[in-house]
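Schema walk-through. Below, the input block comes first and the output block second. Nothing else is stored per chain. Lengths vary across the set, and this one has 183 residues.
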Amino acid sequence: MTAPAGPARRPRSPERKRGLPPVLARDTRILILGSFPGEASLAAKQYYAHPRNAFWPIVGEILGAPLADMPYRLRLASLRAHGVGLWDVIVACERRGSLDGAIRNAEHGEIDRVRRTATRLSLVCFNGKTAARAEPAWRAAGYATLLLPSSSPAYTRPFAEKLAAWRAIADEMRDARRGPGLR
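--- output ---
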């Protein structure tokens, strides 16, 4: 005689995670949207905190500043000085690990919230394919958009290739720093 089977074990669902607050100001002209912070970023409470993520080295090259070597608060100050904001298209979700493919039950950020805060916003950039899924909504809201290759270490393109694509926002960043009416 065999022992009666116990109740079937359900796999534990991943806990619901909240993303990081947006880095936005009234004079933000360029918004870079990622998908959702990885585990390293959530733990550090910093955007692009994974040491192999190419975001800070790429943007540092574009701005001519050693962003990757700066304390986080100075990185953000440098972005703000160039009219650049950060956020993610997903503000909360369930996910095990850091891969975008594991995201479930996503809650998306509100375009109207950004519009109310960043009244000078003109360009919305999407860091990777998962973030780029939100591009049609931002375009429909009247923003110019730009799809960029992911800075994530999971996207295994060479740094030089990623940098070349990201240089498309270099002129926008320089113009944003000069201020209105100087384009």
